[in-house]
Specification:
- This protein is α+β, with helices and mostly antiparallel strands.
- It folds into two domains: 230 residues, Rossmann fold (3-Layer(aba) Sandwich), CATH 3.40.50.300; 118 residues, Nucleic acid-binding proteins (OB fold (Dihydrolipoamide Acetyltransferase, E2P), Beta Barrel).
- 23% of the residues lie in helices and 35% in strands.
- The protein contains eight helices and 20 strands.
- The protein has a six-stranded mixed beta sheet, sandwiched between helices.
- Helix 2 packs parallel to helix 4, helix 3 crosses helix 4 and helix 4 runs parallel beside helix 5.
- The longest helix has 18 residues.
- The model has no long low-confidence stretch (mean pLDDT 93).
- The structure holds adenosine-5'-diphosphate and magnesium ion.
- The site of adenosine-5'-diphosphate has 10 residues, from helix 1.
Length: 364
């Protein structure tokens, strides 16, 4: 059991600073997910914790120990990769016990650890098979089993589900969450997939270009994104985002879009925006709904638009319409047939509209 702390940690590849002085406190037993687009520095960060990459600046502690100078095997961490290479000529049981055997552990102890891991992962019946006789999901479980038998202080996962098909990915996601509940070990998990991050994490760290954009619980990030980037990265479908300029029209603050549409500035924000300020306003699909199909919000702005496309998904329907020249998406929970070409009145919930300064990208 261990907490992990990163203090001003940087990683350089030549002149390129891939990770830029990041600070991070990972709590004991926490499930922490590092998420962000490809190339933002997630794997580099994880590999520095694992000891697979040198730490160029700053300090990493695991438990009470500073691990900068420790070899990977001295850090008591276990890593599970996307490409989990099992030894093809060994049985599952031998694969599971191999690292313990190398470390010189007695057979009796190895057997008991392997049995425990196999129990946790529900792979007892495959113990005598070779990897080739297993499905993708079963192999992935063996790969996790190899990490479990070592009883590490910290599990490190780097996109472990990326190679699996969608259905299996969902299944394994649930299993990883269950695994965490059973073993109660600190987990640092890297993914580019915001759904994985939202469903697995106690806390999420969103990275972009080597820096941390925001840290928070899944709900924190969803409800109060600190930046425009976080707002559009978290949530599906992605938050609608429209750029505009603040103006005063007949004493009222409005946001004027490039297409000349004027939307009132939400009441809570009218004193913190200035005329001429370039801002983007964002709203989620569920906060712009056809008038007939929802409660009218207390502070709303209505507009009319033609449906470009509708996607009925069962309990909800996504409706794509134009907001000026920009296509936006709205979500309707009442299952009602809406066709392309239908003209609908929409109501935008201004209380749930997010404002961002275009210069800084920060929430207003
Ligand atoms: N071994 C390397 N040599 C040079 N550049 C690298 C190396 N590994 C990663 N990078 C660069 O560092 C940045 C961060 O990479 P990485 O940590 O792998 O990102 P992520 O895991 O978020 O996709 C990227 O721009 C990548 O091209
Ligand atoms: Mg990576």
């Amino acid at each position: 059991m261990a907490k992990v702390t990163l203090e001003k940690v940087s990683k350089f590849y030549g002149n390129v600073e891939a990770v830029k002085k990041i600070n991070l406190d990972i709590k004991d037993k926490e499930f922490l997910v590092l998420v962000g687009p490809s190339g933002c520095g997630k794997s580099s960060t994880l590999r520095m914790i694992a000891g697979l990459e040198e730490i160029d600046e700053g300090k990493i502690n695991i438990g009470k120990k500073t691990v900068n100078e420790l070899e990977p095997r001295e850090r008591n961490v276990s890593m599970v990769f996307q490409n989990y290479a099992l030894y093809p000529h060994m049985t599952v049981e031998e694969n599971l016990g191999f690292s313990l055997k190398i470390a010189g552990m007695k057979k009796k102890d190895i057997d008991s650890r392997v049995a425990e891991a196999a129990g946790i992962l529900d792979i007892e019946e495959f113990l005598h098979r070779k990897p080739a006789q297993l499905s993708g999901g079963q192999r992935q479980r063996v790969a996790m089993g190899r990490a479990i038998v070592r009883r590490p202080d910290v599990f490190l996962f780097d996109e472990p589900l990326s190679n699996l098909d969608a259905k299996l990915r969902n299944q394994m996601r649930t299993e990883i969450k269950r695994l965490h509940q059973k073993v109660e070990t600190t987990i640092v998990y890297v993914t580019h997939d915001q759904v994985e991050a939202m469903t697995l994490a106690d806390r999420i760290v969103i990275m972009k270009d080597g820096i941390i954009e925001q840290i928070g619980t899944p709900l924190d990030l969803f409800e109060t994104p600190a930046t425009k980037f976080v707002a559009t990265f978290i949530g599906s479908p992605s938050m609608n985002m429209i750029s505009s300029i603040v103006e005063t029209d007949q004493g009222k603050k409005i946001m004027k879009t490039a297409d000349g549409i004027s939307v009132p500035v939400p009441v809570s924000k009218k004193d913190v925006v200035k005329d001429g300020q370039k801002i983007s306003f964002g709203f989620r699909a569920e906060d712009i709904v056809p008038l007939k199909f929802g409660n009218k919000p207390s502070q709303s702005w209505d507009y009319k638009s033609k449906v470009n496309l509708s996607e009925p998904l069962g309990t909800e329907t996504l409706i794509f319409t134009n907001f000026g020249k920009i296509e936006i998406v709205s979500r309707m929970f009442t299952p009602e047939l809406v066709r392309a070409g239908d003209e609908l009145d929409f109501s935008l919930n201004l209380d749930r509209t997010y404002l961002f300064d275009d210069e800084t990208g920060k929430a207003i």
